[in-house]
Automatic annotation (TrEMBL):
This is Sushi domain-containing protein. It comes from Channa striata. The lineage of its organism: Eukaryota, Metazoa, Chordata, Craniata, Vertebrata. GO terms for biological process: complement activation. The keyword Signal applies. Residues 25-84, 86-144, 147-209, 227-280, 313-371, 373-430, 433-495, 497-559, 561-623, 641-694 form the Sushi domain.
Amino acid sequence: MCIRYLGFVLLIWAPGRLRAQDAAQSCRAPSLDGGFFAPKQEVYSHESKLSYTCNDGRKLTVRGWWATVTCDNGKWSHQPQCIDANDCIPPNVPDGKYVGTQKEWFTGGERIRIKCDKGFELRNQTATARCINGTWFPVPTCEKSLHTCGEPPKVPHAVIIHEEYQELFPVDSEVQYECEDGYTMEGGDAMKSIICISGTWTDGPTCRSSTSSGSERDFEPQKTTINICGKPPNVPNGDIVGIGTMFLKYQCNSFYSLVGEENVECYSNGKWSDVPTCKVTYCSVDTDARHELVSVGVKYMKHGVLHAQSAAQPCSPPKLEGYFVPDQESYSHETSLSYACNDGRKPATEGWWATSTCENGVWSPKPQCIDENLCFPPNIPHAIYKGTQSGWYDKGTIRVKCDKGYELKNQAATAKCENGTWSFLPMCEKSLHTCGEPPKVPHAVIIYQEYQELFPVDSEVQYGCKDGYIMEGGDAMKSIICMSGNWTDVPTCKSLHTCGKPPKVPHAVIIHEEHQEQFPVDSKVQYQCEDGYTMEGGDAMKSIICISGTWTDGPTCKSLHTCGKPPKVPHAVIIDEEYQELFPVNSEVQYQCEDGYTMEGGRTMKSIICISGTWTDGPTCRSSTSSGSERDFEPQKTTINICGKPPNVPNGDIVGIGTMFLKYQCNSFYSLVGEEKVECYSNGKWSDVPTCKVTYCSVDTDARHELVSVGVKYMKHGERRELHCVKNPKWWFAHSSVATCSDGIVTLTKCCNWYDKQTVSLTSESICLHVHFTFIWNCLLKN
């Protein structure tokens, strides 16, 4: 009673403690070194798919530049992996294969050896290929051998043994024939072989009926070939495990032992030697017939051992409209037979003979003979067609449809079965409007689409950016379409925060330059001027910073021998020269006096030259009329040369120069206050000059003891950023301070940790997601 009750308790509790999870399991995000995938999640439900690709310099271990994997009950259909772009994946060799160690990929420089299938030989005797720059060179080719033989000839009342059907046999191939029961070969041989020589089979055997009239002479029986003795003796619970020229070898089934000789010999009088028997050596217990035992059926035991019966079952002879060898009453597990069909029939597989193997009491494949006028399913590359319930086709036609990216040649869509063969087979060829694989886009992968080499017209595929990137225009995804053999324009994925390569600065070099394409937010890069140049402002070095995907302004390097702006000469203007701040050594500029003024010496123009950082002396323009007092006048807008040096706007630059105005623009992270255009008046004065107001903030976490030290963080105007607080040992959870940037001033919320425990209360919300609980704590100050 106690035992039953305990068993009942275990049945109640075991499911909660020990039972395997019946529900389909989800998958964790795969690890992918050197690549990325989309969609990016921590957990993927059963049957979810993700697409992945590899970074520059890497490639997949499968064909194509992207691939998909499926979550199958907690495991991915295959492990995403990226390898060096110079490595090679195993080649596809038609009618051949590579031999040696089977690997997922081969490193650059490795060699492989190719072996052709039977009936094929290597073109140009090239048997090896080498992995060079990610491809195999040369690629060995297998072609049909000139000395190959077709299928062996069909011999009445005979079948080929120990040989699977195949269409081609290489030179020197040998196949053996054996006559069906009741027939013998001419010459008395039990078997006869034919050989493939220079594309032709040698002569085959002839099987004649083994019954003949005539008196027999008395003689002493001699050992002879086993075909003389006819049908092999049946040994109950035993099988033939070996066939010699003049004997059969027997072996008993599991749980039986042999009594007598294992070899049975054939004598010239047509009789066999003494046949052994198989004695039972096992016991059985029928639990259904014993009420004191739990009913679990019949249990079998060897002598002295408890053992459940699990021996593989033998097979009975197949029912067949044909004949087979060897012809036995029983066939043990994994025994094979060969068979052929009667006239008007053929095997239900390719070829005029076939083989089948006994697998635990069942023949595989099932020996079967069908009408010789039936057709097997046709092999049409890149095509699909409607199947039949039987697996083969009667007289009539089938309609063929081509795979995506292919079209019917000559618009012929039907195949006709006549006399057991297809009189015509349609062909599917690549469509002229088909597109190849979609182009690879940096930082993007194709989603919801298995890899394929060809796409039919009007196909649409979607790209998704990897984590941390967004498509230009802000779209989460973008599609391209196959139109008349070409894909429409592909998208571009732009980093959300990272910066590209730092800008090049004339006559400056980057100190400790990192050779990388992308720089994370808050990265710093330092510039230093080349020899013979100095930075404006006199600094030895200047840094630029990556803030929200943009570099701050870089430095300007000025030559030590460079001249500044040419001097202003009253009543003169510089001609044929664009405005600029700096002029290299040996530069020459020309002055011309305004109307009513002339140069000393009567010249109309005069040049000055930049020599070792200094301009030579300029001209003097004097009035060409008599002197007198100047009349009062209202200043008018005039050409900018009258006003002299352009006004300096700190953190701003001149971005446009008109005849009578200058246009200003502020640097990144600064905003313009005032008019962007500054105009020149005839009194030599400029209009009001704008200013540039800072629009970014910085937080030095190293200088704030309540924050986790991560260096200086930069923010644009209006940006909010969460900064981690130093955790207080009295608290279970860490907290953060929110920094907000406004007009160059940063404000930070206080860390909860730094309040006294008595002055803070906690409220909580719990969110249940994928059976994981996330607690969100809000700090509330008590009054």
